[in-house]
């Protein structure tokens, strides 16, 4: 599909990101639109179709790849569940949007598209086990085994953000109590800022308070999440990314030290290959192109 003209869309909690890829890798005409400007009627698929057609203008396109911050069914035909984004649940996006646009539509979890992009960017070989954990508002997780994303029986493998933190009763957006992403991702930093550091902007928390116990414990919980995945899968490569690890003065050394401390000895602890991935606004859009090239 390298000669195809592809539109990639990354649907986030607050924004739609869209771009076109013509040569199989470079995103052009990258744009970002508030979700409320895209979804203006009761017909979500009609709104998304109009958004794509308006974006493309006179330029024809052959396929659309959409990344969702959600679980998808195993066939990748429809969205299952998205915390706090009920409008996208049970959306038959592939068939109905494909019919409306008259082109091939592919849907995938946004973190899988991001991992495809990072594997290409960091020139990682496709064989073996590659894990991506992205600490954003929540925790995104994708697992690639032998060049194929691990889907699981129902299509929902790789949800490490929803493993339980024993003792926590915090209600998660998924409906369960005590999921670790409420304690080890951006939403916890917002909670810390609100309750303990009201005078510090969230983005300056590590700069101003990184050595304090609350933030050191937070980083240790992030390490526990990464170590859990490493201890189960013994990956060849572990990618760690997302907005949190790319914040100013984020203590990567401390995270690394705590990951090593919490992984099994002597292996995998002595043979970890951890890559800290940059946060790029068009990552999932570019990942859509890599995905289409390899899987379309
Ligand atoms: Zn949860």
SSE inventory with pairings:
Elements: E1 6-11, E2 15-21, E3 27-34, H1 35-38, H2 44-56, E4 63-68, E5 71-72, E6 79-81, H3 93-101, E7 104-109, H4 110-121, E8 129-135, E9 139-145, E10 148-149, H5 186-195, H6 205-209, H7 213-233, E11 237-241, H8 252-262, E12 274-276, H9 283-295
Parallel strand pairs: 1-4, 4-7, 8-11, 11-12
Antiparallel strand pairs: 1-2, 2-3, 5-6, 8-9, 9-10
The chain binds zinc ion.
Shape: globular
Task: Kindly state the number of beta strands.
Answer: 12
Which percent range describes the beta-strand content? Answer: 15-25%
Number of domains: 2
Helical content band = 25-40%
Q: What's the helix-strand series?
A: EEEHHEEEHEHEEEHHHEHEH
Low-pLDDT residue intervals, each spanning 5 or more residues: none
Query: For the record, what CATH class of the largest domain applies?
Result: Alpha Beta
Over all CA atoms, what is the radius of gyration? Answer: 19 Å
Distance between the termini: 7 Å
Q: How would you describe the overall organization of this protein?
A:
The chain is an alpha/beta fold and 296 residues long. It folds into two domains: 6-113 and 282-295, 2-Layer Sandwich (Nucleotidyltransferase, domain 5); 126-276, Nucleotidyltransferase, domain 5. Helices cover 33% and strands 21% of the residues. The protein has nine helices and twelve strands. The protein has helices at 35-38, 44-56, 93-101, 110-121, 186-195, 205-209, 213-233, 252-262, 283-295, and strands at 6-11, 15-21, 27-34, 63-68, 71-72, 79-81, 104-109, 129-135, 139-145, 148-149, 237-241, 274-276. The strands form three sheets. Strands 3-2-1-4-7 form a five-stranded mixed beta sheet, sandwiched between helices. The protein has a five-stranded mixed beta sheet with strand order 10-9-8-11-12, with helices on both faces. The chain has a two-stranded antiparallel ribbon with strand order 5-6. Helix 2 packs across helix 3, helix 4 crosses helix 9 and helix 7 crosses helix 8 (252-262). It is globular and about 55 Å long. The termini are close together. Zinc ion binds at residues 162, 172, 174, 176, 179. Zinc ion binds next to loops.
């Amino acid at each position: 599909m390298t000669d195809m003209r592809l539109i990639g869309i990354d649907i986030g909690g607050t924004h739609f990101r869209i771009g076109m890829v013509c040569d199989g890798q470079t995103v052009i005409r990258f744009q970002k639109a508030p979700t409320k400007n895209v979804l203006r009627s009761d017909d979500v698929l009609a709104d998304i179709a109009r958004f794509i057609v308006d974006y493309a203008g006179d330029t024809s396109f052959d396929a659309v790849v959409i990344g969702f911050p959600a679980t998808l069914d195993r066939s990748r035909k429809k969205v299952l569940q998205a915390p706090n984004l009920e409008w996208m649940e049970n959306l038959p996006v592939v068939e109905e949007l494909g019919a409306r646009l008259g082109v091939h539509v592919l849907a995938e979890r946004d973190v899988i598209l991001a991992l495809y992009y990072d594997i290409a960017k960091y020139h990682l070989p496709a064989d073996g086990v590659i894990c991506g954990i992205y600490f954003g508002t929540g925790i995104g997780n994708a697992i690639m085994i032998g060049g194929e994303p691990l889907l699981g029986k129902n299509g929902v493998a790789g949800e490490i953000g929803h493993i339980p933190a024993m003792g926590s009763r915090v209600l998660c957006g998924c409906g369960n109590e005590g999921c670790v992403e409420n304690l080890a991702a951006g939403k916890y930093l917002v909670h810390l800022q609100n309750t303990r550091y009201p005078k510090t902007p969230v983005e300056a928390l590590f700069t101003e308070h990184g050595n304090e116990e609350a933030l050191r414990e937070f980083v240790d919980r992030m390490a526990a999440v990464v170590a859990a995945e490493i201890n189960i899968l013994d990956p060849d490569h572990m990618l760690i990314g997302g907005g949190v690890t790319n914040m100013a003065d984020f203590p990567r050394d401390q995270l690394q030290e705590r990951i090593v401390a919490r992984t099994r000895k002597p292996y995998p602890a002595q043979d970890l290959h951890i890559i800290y991935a940059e946060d790029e606004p068009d990552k999932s859009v570019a990942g859509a192109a890599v995905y289409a090239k390899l899987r379309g």
